[in-house]
TrEMBL record:
It comes from the Bacteria. Residues 38-58 are annotated as: Disordered. This is Cupin domain-containing protein. The lineage of its organism: Bacteria, Pseudomonadati, Nitrospirota, Nitrospiria, Nitrospirales. It comes from Candidatus Nitrospira nitrificans.
Amino acid sequence: MNAQPLILSPDQHEPALNVVGIQVTVLASNAATQSYGITLQQGEEGTDPPPHRQDWNH
């Protein structure tokens, strides 16, 4: 697999998803990168989930 640059302008991604009061914008999907996803998460201070881990992440 050869690395390829992935450049998106603001009009090239889907609208943000509202996930329990946090706006989550997918900047690069697993399909686009062939490996991982990149998201931008925006919300009010204190609305994020408590510290936790996903077993599939480790």
